[in-house]
Amino acid sequence: MTTLSPDAKGYILTLSCPNRPGIVAALSQTLFEAGANITEAQQFDDTGSGSFFMRIMFDIVKGGRTEADLRGIVETLTSQFQMKYRLNCQSYRPKVMILVSKFDHCLVDLLYRWRIGELQIDPVGIIANHPEEIYRDVDFYGIPFHYLPITKDTKTEQEARILSLVQESQTELVVLARYMQILSNDMASAFSGRCINIHHSFLPGFKGARPYHQAWNRGVKLIGATAHYVTSDLDEGPIIEQDVERISHADSPEDLIRKGRDIERRVLSRAVRYHIEMRTILNGNKTIVFNS
């Protein structure tokens, strides 16, 4: 993130619209007239879809335009360019709900990165389909814990409870930190664009149970993990981040699991960071990611 002047307030603006000449010029001029100083700008023209994407960081001198003022100013361009946009203060911390099952390595990693200030989030709850004693070695730092066991008979009822908790806490991002329950189509639709899942495979490939054992049986030389936005298509949502690690014939299934957990941790944390820093913009079944 760009370092702010002590006399300025920083904002992040992301946008998408049909591509045409004059978008950058109009936006730059509009921000200049609002008293903004652009500190970072990234853009992408998708020639395949004819769409334009941009992420801008800018400062406003303290005492100048308010966020409401800026939204009004930006909205003067939305009809002209058929533009969709998001605007947030750089210091904004989105409310995050974390869902987890038995394996807690991704949960622990996210909590650690939040605790040391690496992830600028406000965790509002942890939902698990296993009882709290399973995580007795994990410090939740006072974050509310909700035990919601799911069976075939209780799935609809418990999903309704999850949705209620998300709404009551005003959650803005849901993170499936190795939450091993398939979301219903209704829930996936409710979380569209604001739910990130970590998949224990370098997609596509080795879906289903025991993916690292499948990889070992096939004698693969690379294993990986994929973080993606959740959609009603199982594990087919827009990809945010992926990573791999080389393995050899000498590695056992347990070695693959150990290495896989490390990959899952770092891939999920990167994806969450990209989302909260507004570095991601959905583009159909793909994701534009403006890396730092």
From TrEMBL:
The gene is purU. Belongs to the PurU family. This is Formyltetrahydrofolate deformylase. It comes from Acetobacter sicerae. It catalyses: (6R)-10-formyltetrahydrofolate + H2O = (6S)-5,6,7,8-tetrahydrofolate + formate + H(+). PROSITE patterns: ACT. InterPro entries: ACT-like_dom_sf, ACT_dom, Formyl-FH4-Hydrolase_C, Formyl_transf_N, Formyl_transf_N_sf, PurU, PurU_ACT. The lineage of its organism: Bacteria, Pseudomonadati, Pseudomonadota, Alphaproteobacteria, Acetobacterales. It comes from the Bacteria. Pathway: Purine metabolism; IMP biosynthesis via de novo pathway; formate from 10-formyl-5,6,7,8-tetrahydrofolate: step 1/1. GO terms for molecular function: formyltetrahydrofolate deformylase activity. SUPFAM superfamilies: ACT-like, Formyltransferase. Catalyzes the hydrolysis of 10-formyltetrahydrofolate (formyl-FH4) to formate and tetrahydrofolate (FH4). It is an enzyme of class 3 (hydrolase). Keywords: Hydrolase, One-carbon metabolism, Purine biosynthesis. NCBIfam families: PRK06027.1, PurU. The active site is at D235.
